[in-house]
Amino acid sequence: MLRRRPTTNLDRAVVDVWQREVGGLPNRSFAHRLAASKDLVLQFDIYRKLEKHRGCVNTVSFNADGDILVSGSDDRRIILWDWESGHVKLSFESGHINNVFQAKFMPYTDDRSIVTCAADGQVRRAQILERGRVETTLLAKHQGRAHKLAIEPGSPYIFYTCGEDGLVQHIDLRSRAATELLTCHQIQERRRGLRVVVQLNAIAIDPRNSNLFAVAGSDEYARLYDIRKYKWDGSTDFDQPIDFFCPSHLIGNPYVGITGLAFSDHRELLVSYNDEFIYLFTKDIGLGPDPIPASPASLGSGAGEMGHDHPLEASTMDTDENVSPQVYKGHKNCKTVKGVGFFGPKCEYVVSGSDCGRIFIWKKSGELIRVMEADQHVVNCIESHPHATVLASSGIEKDIKIWTPKATERAILPKTIERVCFVILRLIFVRDHLHTYTYILDRQRTPQDIVDIFDLEALTQKF
Fold first, then answer.
1. φ and ψ of 418, to 5 deg
2. Which of 242, 262, 255 is nearest to 307 (CA)?
3. I need a surface site. Which of 198, 204, 312, 382 has the fewest CB within 10 A?
């Protein structure tokens, strides 16, 4: 009996082309399948480098059409790029007095309205006027650095900001009014009657329900809020999230925090931890609105909700793999506030930068399929094009790299990458535990002295 030849990606591609030609596969479905093709991901290569900034590039973002890229840098400038040609369309001073951390186009403004936040705590708006003139105005202020902002999907007026002061603000450009929604506090200390602020690094809005937004920062929890529960006269306490998300083994861990958040188009929340991994939470595995970190039994109790339209079932977080978050391993996230995101028309892939200067791409199932050499130092930002198979990356270096599937050969995952990742993660584990057990190893040295012995960056360069 003849054995069937295994189906290849080329076979599937030929069938898809034939089905499209005979009308069996709509053009949109064909384009989506092509854009999510693993072959294209394996053929990513640097298409162009954009070089005009004079400092680290901390933020990159495409406009809705995908033809313009906006970037912000430690040089406090905002640059609008025609990324395909590499030409600068416009460059201007942001008005910030410190490093720009985020810059985004407001939707439906003909790309003439840009909002920014920075290390000076300021939240600003830049309006592009006739003949390239730019007017910048101060909208709000945080006490401490303001790392991220999130724009309400489809709104040319409303966005949110968060900062290291733990404050979340709601801003409406029609009135230029900033409303202080809440200040985020640690759960453990709050139960003791203390008010310890969570320094917020990330904020994201659910694209399928813009009433829901998540924030995260210097502790282990991602918190989900529903803006409909806020009373605009300030008559209620909006501090209480409707749900918390955290892997069970990280609850109560004082050494981890969260640097990046992203919602998929399928109501999933992607969470990137420093000194740990990336996790994908579905809406049914939250910890509920009032988790009790001191009690493991509480992990299976409580119920949250993903908004009035989609009630969240009772949490069943336990050792059952079916309700555990999907994990993504291999990258290194220790040094900076690193973002995370989805890639593909249906969020088929997860992408992240790394302290080792590489870009990591996983299938949503958790399989690592691509590691790309990007920078000599840290890669912080990975931005997906809104509809094409294109990525933009930036980090500690002064340039922006545009990635397209232009390589003639499919990349192969480096054979040593698993070994490198294993060694790095073991050293991270040792480093964290040395803070507790230093006296056993060497009573004459401080924890930091011993931590400094392990030069993780130098180690990765040996492989």
1. -65, -35
2. 242
3. 312
Residue found under tokens 């033809």: 67
Which pairs from 179-188 meet CB under 8 Å and 24+ separation?
179/232, 181/225, 181/227, 181/230, 181/238, 182/225, 182/238, 182/239, 183/239, 184/215, 184/217, 184/223, 184/239, 185/239, 186/219, 187/219, 187/221, 187/291, 187/293, 188/252, 188/293, 188/294
The rounded Cα 427 to chain-centroid distance in angstroms is 25
CA–CA–CA angle 238, 201, 180 (5° rounding): 30
Going from the C-alpha of 36 to that of each of 21, 169, 225, 349, the distances in angstroms are: 20, 36, 31, 8
Q: Which residue type occupies 60?
A: V
Query: Of 346, 369, 264, which Cα lies nearest the Cα of 39?
Result: 369
Residue in this structure with the two tokens 């942001």, named with its chain if needed: 94
Taking the C-alpha atoms of residue 98 and residue 120, their distance in angstroms, rounded to an integer, is 5
First to last CA, the chain: 46
| DSSP string across 239-287 | ---SEEE--GGGTT-TT--EEEEEE-TTS-EEEEETTS-EEEE-TT---
Pick the closest to residue 213 from 280, 292, 269, 145 (CA basis). 269
pLDDT digits (tens, 9 = 90+) for 389-436: 999 999 999 999 999 999 988 988 877 665 555 555 555 555 545 544
Residue 211 has pLDDT above 80, yes or no: yes
Tokens of 114: 């840009």
Write the pLDDT tens digit of every residue in 318-327: 434 457 999 9
How far is 19 from 42, CA to CA, in rounded Å? 24
Q: Which of 203, 201, 167 is nearest to 185 (CA)?
A: 167
Do residues 86 and 117 make contact, with C-beta atoms less than 8 angstroms apart?
A: no
